[in-house]
Amino acid sequence: MERFRILVLALAGLGFLGFGVAITLDPAGVLAAVGILGTPAGVVELQAFYGGLELGLGAFLLACAFQPAWRQPGLWLVALGNGGIGAVRLLGIAQSGEFTPFFAWALAWELGFTVAAGLALTGARKTG
After folding, report:
1. Could you read off the pLDDT of 26-77 as tens digits, one per residue?
2. Do the beta carbons of residue 11 and residue 23 sit within 8 Å?
3. CB of 45 within 8 A of CB of 86?
4. Nearest-angstrom CA–CA distance, 103 and 109
5. Does the global pTM surpass 0.85?
6. Long-range pairs for 47-53: beta carbons < 8 A, 24 or more residues apart
């Protein structure tokens, strides 16, 4: 079970880092691919918030993977962070009626990691 916890944290961390790097280096390109266009100031804000936050989360989750005492808090972050994003994405889809192929991939990631982290946390409680 410990290997599974490490795997969930490492993959989630790498995913956040990857998206963070992409949006930091080419925010307009990444955001345009999902239909987000903005002013230069808006792009900077999205770059800072999405890029910066994703980089920080990714780094933290990778640190959690390598620090046994941090694994459970890291898994809670994976579960609640991805669960919140996925839930609000589903709400937005329901409200707008808009659905894109990107949303399908994003939901698979978000809900998949929510379930994986939940399983890892359940295993953590059973094994201590």
Report:
1. 988 888 878 888 888 988 898 999 899 999 999 999 999 999 999 999 999 9
2. no
3. no
4. 10
5. yes
6. 47/23, 50/19, 50/20, 50/23, 51/20, 51/21, 51/23, 51/24, 51/27, 52/20, 52/24, 53/20
CA distance 120 to 123: 5
Q: What is the pLDDT of residue 38?
A: 80
CA distance 7 to 114: 14
Are 128 and 5 within 8 A, CB to CB?
no
Total domain count, the chain: 1
**Residue whose structure tokens are 């929510």:** 114
Q: How far apart are the first and last CA of the chain?
A: 11
C-alpha distances out from residue 45 to 54, 80, 112, Å: 13, 24, 28
* Residue span of the structural domain in which 93 resides: 2-127
Contact (CB, 8 A) for 120 and 8: yes
Give pLDDT, residue 124: 62
Residue in 110, 127, 111, 16 with CA at minimum distance from that of residue 63: 16
